[in-house]
Specification:
This is Xaa-Pro dipeptidase. The chain is of the alpha+beta class and 383 residues long. Helices cover 34% and strands 22% of the residues.
Length: 383
């Protein structure tokens, strides 16, 4: 089987989930998030764009309900032994198949947790699911259970993140020689993604961000490429990916002369990132980390040019986003603890002068100060 962890790793994850199920007095959980299925069993697919569900009972037994296209995928990539198929046909309602499965599993009248907060369960399918379960048993929202378990990385997962970070560094190394006057965004993007693939990495859970000129102020991918000018700005946000584990980085690279405004924004971004690093320690919260970022940028008179979040957890993620929870935003009470992989990004966008500056990298939290996973320094990059 195409498993990326030892069986003992999966057993330990299952045992952690069983503790949570028992504490929440659930008889079973219905998992719809692909990240949850991958973490718990190794199951690796993009078939979650259709209805599929992994049923996990309180005794640790599991059964997957999916389509025929994913039967062999599940057998080959996961530890799941029991797989049931629902049939594609006109008028098919797989929520009925799931209800019948739950009945066969003696879960009628049981307390069942449902993983609602995921792209693997659309609003349409969620409504169909609720229609079938409203009189079947006692339904509880179990969206955050595995998400929080995934927040704390095992040694084997940390090794994946470190490999992903090496690939992210390789991508930047591949890009830098191409960032110059006349440089083509298309070739830069190809070089970055190619370096990750050549290093044994995977597709990212969302597109890389690349934009120059006025587009350097954008925080999302968009279609269309341009060539760099003599004095230009190029914003890049990308992630090295290994066995779906992500390590993200973010930089705004300049060509030619550094403007006064670019230098001001870079100095502020670097100071803010260093303040965030200092706050990213046990005893503080995710909200405290955000406050460190906000205070620093406020001191540089940049409050109106910053965002309302400055990073988030990373791990094994699937389309459409590599962003994981929790995030660094105001008032988030989640404590910082060792063995988290966290991406901190300082994003300053001055629309009045069309000046962009970003700086970000992924960290492994420890008992004290976090460990940067990138080998690159935090100096301003000018080509």
């Amino acid at each position: 089987m195409a498993l990326h962890f030892e069986r003992s790793e999966f057993d330990a994850r299952r045992d952690r989930l069983m503790i949570e199920i028992a504490e929440k007095k659930l008889d079973a959980v219905l998992l719809f998030a692909q990240e949850s299925m991958y973490w718990l069993t190794g199951y690796d697919t993009f078939g979650f764009c259709f209805f599929q569900c992994l049923v996990v009972k309180a005794d640790g037994s599991m059964i997957l309900l999916t389509r025929s296209a994913d039967l062999r995928q599940a057998r080959h990539t996961s530890i799941i032994d029991n797989i049931l198929l629902w049939t594609d046909r006109d008028g098919a309602n797989p929520a009925i198949d799931l209800r019948n499965l739950l009945n066969d599993l003696d879960l009628l009248g049981a307390r069942i947790g449902v993983e609602y907060d995921t792209h693997g369960l659309t609003a349409y399918n969620g409504r169909r699911l609720d229609e079938q379960l409203q009189t079947f048993g006692q339904i509880a929202d179990a969206s955050g259970i595995i998400n929080r378990l995934r927040l704390f990385k095992s040694p084997a997962e940390i090794a994946k993140a470190e490999k992903a970070a090496n690939l992210a560094d390789d991508a930047l190394d591949a890009a830098l020689p191409l960032i110059k006057q006349g440089g083509d965004e298309a070739l830069i993007l190809a070089a970055m993604q190619g370096a990750i693939f050549a290093g044994g990495g995977d597709y990212p859970a969302n597109e890389f961000i690349i934009g120059s000129g006025a587009d350097a102020l954008l925080c999302r991918y968009k279609a269309g490429r341009r060539k760099l000018t003599k004095n230009d700005q190029l914003t890049l946000e990308w992630a090295g990916v290994f066995h779906h584990y992500h390590a993200a980085m973010m930089r705004t690279v300049l060509t030619g002369k550094v403007s006064k405004r670019h230098q001001e924004l870079f100095d502020a971004a670097r100071a803010a990132l260093l303040a965030v690093e200092k706050a990213m320690t046990p005893g503080n919260t995710f909200g405290d980390v955000f406050d460190a970022h906000a205070r620093t940028l406020e001191a540089h008179n940049l409050t109106k040019h910053r965002l309302n979040a400055c990073g988030y957890s990373l791990g094994a993620r699937f389309t459409p986003s590599w962003m994981d929870m929790p995030m660094f935003y105001q008032g988030n009470p989640e404590p910082i603890a060792p063995n988290m992989t966290l991406f901190a990004h300082m994003i300053i966008m001055d629309s009045e002068t069309e000046t962009a500056m970003t700086l970000g990298r992924t960290y492994l939290t420890t008992e004290s100060q976090p460990k940067p996973l990138s080998r690159h320094d935090l100096d301003l990059i000018v080509r």
